Amino acid sequence: MIYGSPGQCLDGRFPAKAGALTVGRSGELATAAVLTSFEAAHPEVAILHSLRLPARKMRTDIDHVVVAGRRVWIIDSKCWAPGFYWSWLGLAWRGLRPAPHARRRTMAATARVLQGYLGTSAVVQTPVVVVWPSSEARRLSVWAWRPLDAKPLTGRRFAAVVNLIVPPAPADPKVVASLRELLIA
Questions:
Q1: Which three-class secondary structure state does DSSP give residue 47?
Q2: Span 18-71, pLDDT tens digits
Q3: What CA–CA distance (Å, rounded) separates 136 from 114?
Q4: Beta strand 61-68 with 46-52: parallel, antiparallel or unpaired?
Q5: What average pLDDT does the chain have?
Q6: In which band, very low, low, confident or very high, does the pLDDT at 122 lie, cut at 50, 70 and 90?
């Protein structure tokens, strides 16, 4: 089952950055297309798009969640300028230039808050960051980028290995019901 609509996290926020939001939405839609194909092959899993994190002090939204059995995967979609992303001494780089947007470390906190919300009814797995190129003219590589709190994959790689990341299993209805309460209308 699929719940929610991809890209809802971006609606009406930061009107001054409309161009960046359009690019961000394209990343969310690309990841959603991969997840829709995955769900079509494995209808026993549940996929939820655009959830509000249940935390007062964190204004973080979750792009996608996949539930297989009692296991939950948080998937964050990004759409970045093409290039070679890498990490060194806690800093993130694109080529030889700093990439501060690749240094954000919110995925671990997001996973902890979601685990606390779900309690022992579910096990939140290591979050996945799926990065799509904003332009197909050049390649995007994230194999040397090491965020401390998530597993990074290019969109192309994610599409190829989603079956390995998320072993299909019937989604636990209680976990899905709890997560549906977080959907952005």
A1: strand
A2: 556 666 788 899 999 999 999 999 999 999 999 998 777 766 789 999 999 999
A3: 34
A4: antiparallel
A5: 88
A6: very high
The answer to whether 151 and 129 are in contact (CB under 8 A) is: yes
What pLDDT was estimated at residue 162? 95
Tokens of 123: 């096990």
Extents of the domains making up the chain: 2-180
> In the chain, which ranges are continuous DSSP H helix?
18-41, 107-118, 155-165, 173-180
pTM: predicted TM-score of the whole model, two decimal places: 0.88
- Is residue 31 within 8 Å of 75, Cβ to Cβ? yes
Which of 49, 35, 68, 67 shows the shortest CA–CA distance to 159?
35
* pLDDT given for residue 19 in this prediction: 58
Residue among 3, 33, 24 nearest 156 (CA): 33
- Cα 165 from chain centroid? 13
The two three-digit tokens of residue 51, written as one number: 């959830």
